[in-house]
Amino acid sequence: MNTISVVILNYNGEKMLEKYLPSVVSNTKDAEIIVADNKSTDNSITWIKNNYPSIRIIEMSENWGFAEGYNKALKQIDSEYFILLNSDVYTPEGWLQPLIDYLKNNNQCGACQPKILSDIDKNKFEYAGAAGGYIDYFGYPFCRGRIFDYVETDKGQYDDIAEIFWASGACLAIKKSVFDSIGGFDGRFFAHQEEIDLCWRLKSLGYSIACIPQSKVYHLGGGSLNYESPRKTFLNFRNNAILLYKNLPTNKYIFVRTVRILLDFIASIQMLLQGKTANAKAVITGNIEFIKMKSHFKASKKSISQSVTCKKPYGILNHLLLWKVYINKNKTFNQLKFQKKYS
């Protein structure tokens, strides 16, 4: 049994692997590196075999997406710690050990992430994760270092180890025992927000989630889908609706869902006025798809509600983030005056 496995999920990512895999190989010590391939149709596998023959490759029968792709891959890996790493992440020297040390020394920590900076502008945080994720009362995700589209410059303002609500799937460290105990990701998400669902379930069971800024990586972002992609918009709105349905208590969910339907409709109108017709349509179709899928999540919702040990997990902003940002003009995490809690 290996102690640590760094697992990179790949789908037609030959160019990303050429650019970023060398840093992972050079700067990852005492860990097995694995590429799990989601039935790529490019030359990804051939390139890895030719250039890094020692890297283990797990080849899957079809493109299972991020969530189920990792589920199927990790079932084939027998290691104490998993590091899930996007193929478009540069890892500098010393990136790995602080994550592993924290998991080893904190039994209640279910998962953690490094500080994630942009590989395009290395002085700025990266959109997908920054210095750790949170969520507001109505399901809008945000980060230390990124609220909606406003991304902060890294000035060391988030260099403290902090308890967060969700760790980014771009670089997520988790114990195998913990991942297996909650059944891994919900594969029905396919991609986007599945890590928030995973972390919410962990938090509800009393685990903490942490950002460890002593470790840092550089993420390109948008490697599989551009941030403006209508497909990404569809998945984000559909999966956010699933996320809230599964994890919120029924008495809270009814109110939150009612408000979100209105806010999502307003968001689609705004996109339409901006000329983003496909994205506006994706918001609506995402919500319609959730209605069609909702019945399939009833058993999961019941199971989660019956196993909850922490009814008020830390990391949920008890306000509407839209109001804080657009009415109160709070653009940064620190301006939200979010109560700090250190893990």
Description:
The chain has 343 residues and is an alpha/beta fold. The chain has 11 helices and 14 strands. Helix 2 links the parallel strand 2 and strand 3. The two termini are 29 Å apart.
Q: How many β-strand runs?
A: 14
Number of helices: 11
Q: Outline, from the CA principal axes? A: globular
Helix content: 25-40%
Q: Termini separation (Å)?
A: 29 Å
Query: What ranges have pLDDT less than 50 throughout 5 or more consecutive residues?
Result: none
Briefly say what this structure is.
This protein has 343 residues and is an alpha/beta fold.
Name its key features.
three-stranded mixed sheet; nine-stranded mixed sheet; single chain; alpha/beta; 11 helices; globular; 343 residues
What's the structural blueprint in terms of helices and strands?
Layout (H helix, E strand, L loop, with lengths): L1 E9 L3 H14 L4 E6 L6 H8 L4 E4 L5 H10 L4 E7 L3 E2 L6 H9 L3 E10 L14 E4 L4 E3 L2 E2 L2 E2 L10 E3 L6 E5 H6 L12 H11 L3 E12 L10 H18 L2 H24 L3 H17 L4 H10 L8 E2 L3 H6 L17
Parallel strand pairs: 1-2, 1-4, 2-3, 6-13, 7-14
Antiparallel strand pairs: 4-12, 5-13, 6-12, 7-8, 9-10, 11-13
